[in-house]
Amino acid sequence: MSEGPEKRKRHRVAFTREVPVRIQAIDGTWSRQCVMLDVAEDGAKLLLKDSVESLRLKEFFLVLSTTGTAFRRCELVWINGCEMGVQFLEKVLTKLPPRAAPHQDTHEV
């Protein structure tokens, strides 16, 4: 079964093994386990583990780590059965902004 011509503008990386991720409401009121099937600079394709029928999917977080420290803000682009396409809303910083040094009166040697 052919999926037709590729319509995506960016190169995608498909994974050879499951990459567990989670989608979560911006306000934290819901979350669902997913598997990331592929990813590009501007979005990803996910395999849903549970129904998202009653959820508000305008904007949400794609949580990439078990601790929640790696995530992307997303919006739903399409949904087809158990698969969904998401678009990342903000660019990832290539460099972290400079941190303010904590004020200390003593210096370690």
CATH topology of the domain at 13-88: Thrombin, subunit H
Report the portion of residues in β strands. 35-45%
- Model regions low in confidence, pLDDT < 50 over at least 5 residues: 1-5, 93-97, 100-107
CATH superfamily of the domain at 13-88: predicted glycosyltransferase like domains
Give the rounded overall mean pLDDT: 80
| Count, helices | 0
Placed side by side, the strands forming the largest sheet appear as 1-2-3-6-5-4
Which secondary-structure class do the elements indicate?
mainly beta
Helix and strand topology:
Elements: E1 13-25, E2 31-39, E3 43-48, E4 60-63, E5 71-80, E6 83-88
Antiparallel strand pairs: 1-2, 1-4, 2-3, 3-6, 4-5, 5-6
Task: Briefly summarize what is shown.
The protein has strands spanning 13-25, 31-39, 43-48, 60-63, 71-80, 83-88. The protein is mostly beta strands. Strand 2 and strand 3 form a beta hairpin.
Task: Write structural notes for this entry.
The chain has 109 residues and is mainly β. It is globular and about 30 Å long. It is built from no helices and six strands. A six-stranded antiparallel beta barrel has the order 1-2-3-6-5-4. The chain has a domain at 13-88: predicted glycosyltransferase like domains (Thrombin, subunit H), CATH 2.40.10.
What are the key terms here?
single chain; 109 residues; mainly beta; Thrombin, subunit H; 6 strands; 0% helix; globular; disordered N terminus; disordered C terminus
